[in-house]
Amino acid sequence: MKKLDLGKENINKLLISFSIPCVISMLINSIYNIVDQIFIGKGVGTLGNGSTNVIFPLIIIFNAFASLVGTGAASNMSLKLGEGKKDEASKSIGQSLIITFIISILLSVTSYIFLPKLVYLFGCTDNVYKYALDYGRIIIIGAPFMIIYSSLSNIIRADGSPKYSMIMLIIGAIINIILDPIFIFIFKLGVKGGALATIIGQIVSFIIALLYLKKFKSITLNKKSFKLDKNIFKILSLGLSSFITQGTVLVLFVFMNNMMTKYGALSKFGEDIPLSVYGVISKINSLFISTVLGISIGAQPIVGFNYGSGNEIRVKETIKKVLIINLTVGIIFNLIFVLFPKNLAGIFISSTDPNYELFMEFAELMCHSFLLLTALNAFEMTGSILIQSLGKVKKATALSFIRQIILLIPISLFLCIVLKKGIYGVLYAGCISDILCFIIAIFLVGSEYKNLGKNKDLNLIEEPTCKNKYNGKHIIITISREYASGGRYVGKLLADSLGINFYDKEIISLSAKESGLSQKYITERDETKRKSENDDRLFIAESNVIKKLAQKESFVIVGRCADYILKDNKYTLKIFLYSDDKSKINRAVKYYGLEKANALKEIKSINKSREKHYKYYTNREWYNLENYDLMINVDKLGVEQTADYIKEFIEKNR
Question: 367, 646, 83, 21: which is closest to 359 by C-alpha?
Fold first, then answer.
C-alpha cells in the first residue's frame, strides 16, 4: 500500500499488480490437487483418480473456512484502512489469526475421526474406498498448515504484498511437484506418496506465511490485536460470501459424485469411470475458476479501499474492467473445453489403462454438455466477490447460492428422476443452470453497479484558481479561531482586501486531488465534524497541499493546523481569533441556525473537538499564546475592523 496508492494509482496498473500474483496464487492451489491427480492417475490408475476426487470435498471444506476468515479479514482491513481506522484494521488481522488456528485444529481432528464415514458420504465406491482412506488420512494431517497459510495469503495480498503471497505458494507447489514422482514412482508409495508430497509443500508455505507477521506494511500487530471480541463476527460476516461460495461448491461436488456413481452404474460407463472423470474435469475447470476468482479477489483491496474512501467512480471503473477481463477469460477456457476435451483428459490417464476408451469418451461428453457454457459462470463469480467487497454480504451470499443450490441441483434431479435422462440429465443440467444464473446475476450485479455514484457530492467544491493581485512581500496568514467568533469572515475580508487567495473549504478539492479521497469523504471528516476520530491520511494530504501553496503564493488560510504545518516558514503570520460567549451565541444563532438554548453547549463541543484535533497532530495546546504572533478578541474591534487591523499590521511590518 505504501508503494501503490489504491486511491490514486491507475486502475490498470493496480489490477496488474494485485490480480496477477493473486491469480498465480489461486492457480497454485489448484495445481496442488492437479499434480497429485496427474501422477496418481499415471501411477495408480482410474481408482487412484477416484480416491483424490472423493477426498476433494474435504479440501473444499478446509479452503472454505480459510476463505471465511482470510477473505473476511482482508475485506475488513481494506475497508478500515480506506476509512483511516488503522487500529481496527490491526484488530481484524490479530483476531483472524486466533480464530483460524482454532478452526484448523477442530476441523482436522473431526475429519480424521469420521473419515471412514465421510468418504461414502462424498460418493466413494467400494473399489475406491481403500485408496481414499490412504490418501485422506495424510491430507488431513497437513490441513492446519494449509488452512492457516491459505487464510494468511488473502491478508498478505490485502496488505499490499501480492508477490510475497505468490512466492509463498509457488515454493510449496514446486516442492510438491518435485516430490510427487519421487514418492509415487521411485518409493512406490502410490496415493500415500502423492499426499505426503502435498503436505510437505504446504508446511513450507505455512512457515513462509508466518514469517510475514513481522513485515506488515499498513498495520502494526500488538497484544491487543489478538484479543477476541464481538468484532470477530463482523470479520466473519464479510467472508461469508466466499465461505458460502466454497460451501455451495462442496454441496455440488458431493451431489455430483453421488449422481455420477448412482446413474453411472446404470450406464455403459459404470460407477467408477464417471466418478473419476468428474474429478479430473473438475480439477481442470478449477484452473478457470481460480483465474476468475484470483482476478476478482485481487481487485478486492482496490474496490474496498475506494468504497471506504467514498471514491465510487473508481469503484465503478474497477468493477467494469474486472467483469470484462473475467468474461474474456471465461470465453477462452470455454473454447478449450469444447475443442480439446480428449487432450485435457489424456493428461490424467495412461493409454494402457483398461478403462482408457470409456474414460476418454465420458470426458468428451462432459465437456460438451456440463461445461458447454461455463464462460457464463465468470459473471456470477466476479459479481459475488466484488459485491462482497462493498460490504453487501446478503446480496453476495444470495448470488453465490443461485447456480449450485437453487438451480443446478433441482434441475439435475428433475432431468434424472422426472424425465428419466439418467447420467445425461446430470450433465445437461450444467449448461441450463449456467444460462439461468447468468440472467439473474445481470440484474443483481447491475442494480448494485447503477447505485454506485448516486450518492456522490452534489455540490463539488471546484479547485480554486490563483486570483492574487497582491504585489507586496510574500505573506501567508494562518487563522486559528474559536467557533462562531467571526474568524472565518475576518479571514475572507482580509484576503479580499489584500488581493490574495482565501482558503477554507477550498482546501477540500485540493486535498481530494492530492490524496485520491473523495470530496464527500473529506467533507464528512472536516474539522468541524471531527467529534472523536482523526484521519492521518486526510491530515497528510492537507499538509502537503498547504506546503505546496506556501511555496508559490501568498494567501489566507483558516484552521487545519496550518500554523503548525507552516511553523518553520518565515513568511507566515500566525493569528488566533476569539470572542466572548455572548457574541459567539448571537453569531451561531444568526448565521449557523443553532437554537439559542443549546447554542453554547454546541459551541463548546466544537471548540473542544478542535482543541483535541490540534493536540493530536501538533502535540501543542490550541490556546497556548506561544503558538501565535497575534491573538485578537474580535469583539473589541468588530469583524471588519479586525480585518483592517491585521492588514495594517502586515503593511507596517513588511
Answer: 367
The two beta strands, 501-503 and 476-481, are unpaired
597 beta partners: none
Q: Domain boundaries in the chain?
A: 11-451, 476-652
The CA-based angle 640-643-648, given to 5 degrees, is 125
CATH topology of domain 476-652: Rossmann fold (3.40.50)
pLDDT tens, residue by residue, 136-158: 999 999 999 999 999 999 899 88
Q: What SS3 state is found at 594?
A: coil
CB-based burial, 561-586: b 16+ in 10 Å, e otherwise: bbbbbbeebeebbbbbbbbeeebbbe
Q: Which residue has the cell 500500500?
A: 1
Closest CA to 154 of 144, 164, 145: 164
For 29-88, what is each residue's pLDDT tens digit? 777 778 778 898 888 888 888 898 899 899 989 989 998 999 889 888 877 886 677 888
Q: Please provide the DSSP assignment of 187-241 as one string.
A: S--THHHHHHHHHHHHHHHHHHHHHGGG--SS----GGGG---THHHHHHHHTHH
CA 287 to CA 333: how far, in whole Å?
9
Distances (CA, A) of 285 to 366, 450, 468, 653: 11, 31, 65, 77
Q: Are 269 and 44 in contact (CB under 8 A)?
A: no
Cell representation of residue 222: 500488538
> What is the per-residue pLDDT across 426-463, written as a single tens digit (0 to 9) for each?
999 999 999 999 999 998 888 888 888 665 544 445 55
Best CA proximity match to 538, nearest among 7, 1, 73, 4 = 7
Other beta carbons within 10 Å of 106: 12
pTM for the model? 0.66
